[in-house]
Specification:
Length: 182
């Protein structure tokens, strides 16, 4: 499938719409099994500075984001957030390529670790993360007491120095890159 990726911020309208569809999908798939309201406060878009939207032509295929992790238990980390590929596009490797793009961006920003929270019931997501080198860790930060959470981590080898991660005065990455295609 011929797709392209656009790097943007968390206030991009296509990214926001994809997050809304993600929430609907999670409610449909997990709503009866998991009390999803407890997660809402950790999925706000206000502090997301780096997001990626995937397109096929002009149609949004999926999206995901990075959010700087600010708790003390994991050093120099960014959190993978709001990863979702729309159902009709699933099964084509798009999720893997999306997560890889976000990993690359985290490296460019100089982060040492990338972490995420998912759930054991989301087997397709767990498969993608494990395939890309994420390992299960004890639940971190806000997810410590959430039994339905499954947390993972990947240690990054930074492509450039940047401790702490470097952003310009507007909070945007120094090297946001250009849209990439695949």
């Amino acid at each position: 499938m011929n797709c392209r990726m656009k790097r943007c911020s968390g206030n991009d309208s296509d990214f926001i719409e994809n997050c809304y569809l993600l929430d609907l999908d999670l409610d449909r798939r997990l709503g009866r099994v998991v009390e999803r309201k407890q997660y809402h406060q950790y999925n706000l878009l206000d502090d997301i500075k780096e997001a990626v939207v995937v397109y096929s032509g002009d149609e949004v295929v999926g999206a995901g984001a990075l959010r700087e992790y600010t708790y003390d238990d994991i050093e120099n980390a960014v959190e993978l957030k709001r990863i979702f590929v729309r159902e009709k596009f699933q099964g084509h490797g798009i999720g893997t390529r999306l997560v890889q793009e976000l990993i690359n961006w985290a490296k460019e920003l100089g982060f040492k670790n990338i972490i995420l929270e998912t759930g054991e019931l989301l087997q397709e997501s767990c498969h993608v993360y494990k395939k890309l080198g994420f390992e299960i860790i004890k639940n971190y930060g806000p997810y410590v007491s959430m039994a339905d959470s499954l947390c993972m981590k990947k240690i990054l080898i930074a492509q450039r120095s940047g401790f702490p991660p470097q952003r310009n005065f507007e909070g945007k990455p120094q090297h946001p890159g250009s849209p990439s295609g695949f």
